[in-house]
Amino acid sequence: MRELAASVLEWTGPFAVASVVSVRGSAPRPVGAALAVHPDGRVVGSVSGGCVEGAVYELALEVLATGTPRLARFGYSAEDAFAVGLTCGGELEVFVQLATPEIRAAMRAAVEGRPVVLTRSLVMGTGSVEFPESAPTSSSVVDNSLVESWGTAPRLLVFGAIDYASAVARQGKFLGYHVTVCDARPVFATVDRFPHADDVVVDWPHRYLAATPTDTSTAVCVLTHDPKFDVPLLKTALRLPLAFVGALGSRRTHLDRVARLRAEGVTDAELARLRSPIGLDLGAATPEETAVSIAAELVAVRRGGGGLPLSWTEVPIHKDAAAVCGA
């Protein structure tokens, strides 16, 4: 439900929230995915990628009219493939209720970037909200209650204030990252040039990385392809427990970069963590296309994807719920 927060906090008066509380088999959205319906007909979010949205919308209107929470199950109907259900063969349960003060408070905390834990009864819709100092991002059902824990957004650190960085920052925000653009050159590192970044920092990249908080969800994209910036930055990054370290550049640039890093004492094990040239092979040419290829690699690493066309594989399209919880 966190993804709805920025859109629905401005809504005044009652509105309905539908949340996925159970998934079986192949289904497009995980536990915790949500959809909000305003009395005037506005809809934000999704619970199934389109399969049962119409039925859930009607259920939300009913809840708005009665005030009574509803728990509904949707699944594939072998007898009637056009019946309301999931034609992908999965089954899900959706809980619909009016937005409570606790839900509104949790959404407000999410927009402000504060960790929050929201617990709701799947019978009455009542619940509680807590604001811990830190929290993992997860959604699960425990003792007939939906427990949603939202940590702070993962960080995407983009180094190099170039046109590619602007496109990568935009993709990063789209994927839910807290995006920082950093460059040592103040003439290029400006808020006007990077409107989609949460922070624009003027500092030497390696110095900023060494001083800023990072964790195992942090992604680093090095776009400068200038040795005086790249080498000390990558030397620092490859020795931190980060989720992703990638660097832009041609294959010739990559070979030169690796040689320079080895000369600085970076080990083969550390170099094995470097994703360079950064991005998946999409044939990208423009900064925007390159940003999509970088975003695709970030998603593949984050979710355990292989990066191949789905038509070439026979693996499950949707990974297990634990891998995508909190998406």
Automatic annotation (TrEMBL):
Domain (XdhC- CoxI) ranges: 13-75
Gene3D superfamilies xref list: NAD(P)-binding Rossmann-like Domain (3.40.50.720)
Domain of life from the UniProt record: Bacteria
Residue ranges of every copy of the XdhC Rossmann domain listed in the record: 156-298
Annotated signal sequence range: none
Pfam family, one: XdhC_CoxI
TM ranges: none
InterPro entries named in the record: MoCofactor_Util/Proc, XdhC_CoxI, XdhC_Rossmann_dom
Record-linked PANTHER family: ALDEHYDE OXIDOREDUCTASE MOLYBDENUM COFACTOR ASSEMBLY PROTEIN (PTHR30388), MOLYBDENUM COFACTOR INSERTION CHAPERONE PAOD (PTHR30388:SF4)
Official protein name in the record: XdhC family protein
Native source species: Saccharothrix hoggarensis
